[in-house]
Design goal:
With 185 residues, the protein is an alpha+beta fold. It has four helices and nine strands. The chain has one domain. 17% of the residues lie in helices and 30% in strands. β7 and β8 form a beta hairpin.
């Protein structure tokens, strides 16, 4: 989450430079829509808040969430993310989110970028690795920690556990929409 949340100041600057950027639809086929703000909630991401968890903020960053989006004709990209901290164990956090994630498809468990258990790729093609759009840096370590994923390679939800220390578990909730791979690979 550290590296991901470090982009929030840049996102805020983008939002300042492009305030109220409207969609362009003046009788044309050209569509442009973008937004950037430092507010996203678990509910907006499509997942419940973990009971008793508190929003997590790095000491040099005043935000614990982000909502970024860009649509340019058929190119779609969006990310919503929020970071939390709890005194519960990582296993408890993962167990809590398995059922809510299942509404988006098969739940894939990944540890250090590798699948855990017999499910290595979902029916929709989502993986733990970097094939296509599978690898995402949620916690600043490029997939080095534990996470659950559900959805498709172009649109998925994930719960990422950051390295825990001193009796605290840091975790992030993310909803991600990536551009479709038009190469056919």
């Amino acid at each position: 989450m550290r590296r991901f949340l470090s982009v929030l100041p840049a996102a805020a600057m983008l939002a300042v430079l492009l305030p109220g950027t409207p969609s362009l639809a003046q009788d044309s086929d050209f569509k442009l829509d973008m937004h950037a703000n430092n507010h996203a909630t678990a509910k907006e991401i499509g997942l419940p808040e973990y009971p008793g968890a508190k929003l997590y903020r790095e000491k040099d960053n005043d935000s614990s969430s982000a909502d970024l989006g860009l649509i340019l004709n058929s190119f779609h990209f969006s990310v919503q993310a929020v970071s939390y901290v709890t005194g519960d164990l990582p296993e408890q956090v993962l167990a809590f989110y398995r059922k809510p994630l299942a509404k988006y498809g098969e739940v894939l468990e990944c540890d250090h970028g590798k699948p855990v258990g017999s499910l290595t790729v979902t029916k929709s093609g989502l993986t733990c690795g970097d094939h296509g759009h599978g690898q995402v840096s949620v916690n600043g370590t490029g997939g080095d920690d534990h996470e659950l994923r559900a959805g498709s390679p172009e649109a998925f939800h994930l719960v990422g556990i950051d390295s825990s220390a001193a009796g605290k578990t840091k975790f992030g909730l993310v909803a991600l929409v990536l551009p479709k791979d038009e190469s056919g690979k």
